[in-house]
Amino acid sequence: MAVDGTDDAQLVVTVLDSKGNAINNSVPVTLSITSGPGEFPTGTSITFTPPGSTDQSDIAILDGKAAIEFRSYYSGTSVIKATSSGLTAATITITSQGSPAWVEGVTRRPRRDPTPATPAEEARAPAKPWP
Length: 131
Description:
Order of helices and strands: EEEEEEH
Helix content: under 10%
Structural class: mainly beta
Number of strands: 6
Distance between the termini: 39 Å
Radius of gyration: 16 Å
Shape: elongated
Strand order of the largest sheet: 3-2-5-6
């Protein structure tokens, strides 16, 4: 994957049973970047939640599947961990190539605008004055 911001990878989450078979249970699943330079459009983590859940996310998990894009502006190895309560965690490693290189604990992530609020968050937030 190139590090110039024009290349990305699509990650597809699939909920599996204890035998490794895909199931259609729509349970909350969190992806977190545990190390490395990569990021999601939402930052270093995202939680996919089922539709109608009280804590709705930007991207719903439907029939046990969800997807998000991933990119990096630095070369290096990113480790992404998927977790869900009561299920075995899984990890994937993605290597990005090019320059500049990521140095863990030294290189700062590019500054991004905060992720827009979900409709549920907007409804709970106080009104903002016009700038």
